[in-house]
Amino acid sequence: MKFSALIFLLLLFAAFSYFMARQKITTAYRQHKQKKKILTLPKYFGYVAALCSLLPALLVLFFLQVVEEPYINSEISAYIVESNIDANEDLDLYLNDIKSADTPEKVSALSPEKQQVYQRYHEIETTTNRTISVVVLALSILLAIWGLKKINTDTPARKVFEKIIEGILLLAASIAIMTTVGIVFSVLFESTRFFGEVPILSFMFGTEWSPQTAIRADQVGSSAAFGAVPLFVGTMLISFIALLVSVPLGLMSAIYLSEYASKSIRSVAKPVLEILAGIPTVVYGFFAALTVAPFIRDLGESLGLSVASESALAAGLVMGIMIIPFVSSLSDDVLSAVPQSLREGSLGLGATRSETIIKVLIPAALPGIVGGVLLAASRAIGETMIVVMAAGLAANLTVNPLEAVTTVTVQIVTLLTGDQEFDSAKTLAAFALGLMLFVTTLILNVIALHVVRKYREQYE
Amino acid sequence: MNNTLNNTDLVKKSLRKRYFKERLFRSLGLVSIATAIIFLLILLADITSKALPAFSQTQLELTVELDRDRLGLSAQPDEAELMAADFRLVIRDALLAQFPEVTSRRDKRELYTLTSMGAEFQLRDMVIDDLSLLGQTITVPFMADDDVDAVIKGSIDRTLPESDRRVKDQKLAWIETLEASGQIDTAFNWHFFSSGDSREPEMAGIKGAILGSFYTLLVTLALSFPIAVAAAIYLEEFAPKNRFIDFIEININNLAAVPSIVFGLLGLAVFINFFTLPRSAPLVGGIVLSLMTLPTIIIASRSAIKAVPPSLREAALGLGASKMQTVFHHVLPAALPGILTGTIIGMAQALGETAPLLMIGMVAFIVDIPQSVADPATVLPIQVFLWADSPERGFLEKTSAAIMVLLFFLVAMNAIAIYLRKKFEKKW
Predict the structure, then answer these.
(1) Distance between CA B215 and CA B213 in Å, rounded?
(2) With contact defined as beta carbons under 8 Å apart, do B293 and B224 qualify?
(3) Is A189 in Cβ contact with B261 (below 8 Å)?
(4) What is the pLDDT of residue A89?
(5) Would the pTM of this model clear 0.90, i.e. be above it?
(6) Is the ipTM above a cut-off of 0.85?
(7) Residue of A158, A291, A422 lying closest to B322 (CB–CB)
(8) Are strands B56-65 and B137-143 parallel, antiparallel or unpaired?
(9) Domains (ranges, CATH) in chain A?
């Protein structure tokens, strides 16, 4: 049975239970109208009955759907081994061939052996599918009948219903935890597989990065090297340039907007910053690669410098501009949290505005500003599209901003796009890099959030 | 007395310097703001100027003879026969009739590249629509090749010496002849909005990417809106103060700052490899993006719920409503405009997101226009990324045009959000 039809039937049963339960309770209420006080609306009994038939069935359905695919795969593999069919190709590819044959023409295009396997696959798939449908529908009907029998006017239907809803709300709130756990497990799991092949120390401290594994052992450069230091240095170089641009500009714009700007300037500047924040990074990347990088190269050439066409400087500059609104809005928050009395005290003693800002406001807001800079750094380290489009691919170990460097995110993208087998060290390396990226940004974020919170409490 | 006078003098003397510093500091602030504004203007101007040519398309008017015999068609051809017929032949005939002096094989081949590869399909579709055209001689504005297009739009400089020019003298002469006889004109490029991706710059369109983005956002919205609203309600209205809830809050704040590419790794490892969902599909893209936008929408919804005055809750509770009824009947409707604004902003963020979708294979070259959330598709930002990587010059303007379409949608979404906020904003 088709998945959508199954869901439709389940919903139909739920609706049916809703009406039946409501009917039952309404009649019961009518019978002892005067004797008892009515506390709960009939619709709540309906809701409870409907959820009783729907929720467990949905959970079971979800679970069965997840285990269906591995089960079918193992059955087919067993069949292939059993009937001595020579699956000389990769088993995954073999299964894929068979599964993708969804039209009669495609089936007849398969080799006779594969057709045989296909028949078996078709049988297994139909039976599992049928079993799942029957189990789920039976469960739903049984629970609906049980619920309808059990429900009576003494059931605290509204309370039960509200408890269930509260549970669902809690579940929704915990998705944040599940996402974090999912991220940690997925990168950690693949990373441990990677570190099984490449020692962790040579990954962390090796200075040569060339992830291409040769197909034949005798090829030139057959030994892949996974020393990630050039990537770390490249990432830091570009992030550093970005911070060099964004921190002064962002901080000064925030100060100007909150302390000096007239209303008309603010009404122009605020939307501009919002637009800068809203432009997709791929657009910045395009601009960096096609306009800024050639400009910087030409400028450098006219000054007699040799600048790579994918220089770290171009990517860093554009990334810096991208982060300006981020720094500016964070600094704005932090500055406006400084109590007015400090400002007035300083001005009252005869300090000029700039003296007040430099000698009173900024020292008072320093922890918050540092927190903001850390968040901006984490943003810069994790930024992907600008560097993918404007920074290089070759892992040069250099701190010269005019040369091309590569970053962690660039390498993750290059390793994982295009053809891939999932168990080669090359693709697993991407997850190891992802782990480094996640851990670094996590540490930066935790410190930054902590610092900012502590700072806020200081003035509350 | 003498001493105080001295101090006043000192202060007065230093005033000029201090005021100068004040003005310097102030102008530094102004310069920072101006830098941001100028950068934005340059960026927009650069992209717009690059994009404008993409919205027009050069056409080549040719007179073709739709001869049944030449096309190898029967008297009453059915559709399959028409699909198989070689319409290239009659277009080539028309070009040869125009330039009878071209005789050598090499020159002929060069001549045939004046029209786009798509010209034959254009003609075929015309014939399928109207069978009575067969046997007639008609004048059709054919789509020109991207090189011809570039010459007409001036992006290839005709005055350059031949060796530096992409279009050689011979071809340029043909183009100029056609231009002189009024057979070349430009029209609005509808094709760009009505077709999928292509390897030929003049045939590439963004309909596939727009629909891919649409399906992806549909999945994102369907998942993230209910979950985020439920989470926000729970955290604001029901959550007890304990460690677990603190942990949830820390997680939400952290997820908001996790690099987007990490979400792509999650999608690849969990949804594609573990749950074996289809690669390149808007379904997986939507799931990944909804996990990514959840924190944004949760944080916005929470502040909207927080802004609903307690008096509303107390009145409902006082009249005997249960906590759940209070929240769903009174608090939620009052907070809805704020929640919707936050959701639209989250969706705009999801629309512009590229990196996590690269991880789950939405970067493939896909010509077909997706029909459902399970079809392989690409999205607007990735289309920009793919075209930006293409070496052909024709794709440069397409890239910029795709960026403009993307920015148009973003501006529209943000405008709706601002309008909603203005219209339904309540001062309690």
Answers:
(1) 6
(2) yes
(3) no
(4) 57
(5) no
(6) yes
(7) A158
(8) antiparallel
(9) 3-155 (no CATH), 225-458 (1.10.3720.10)
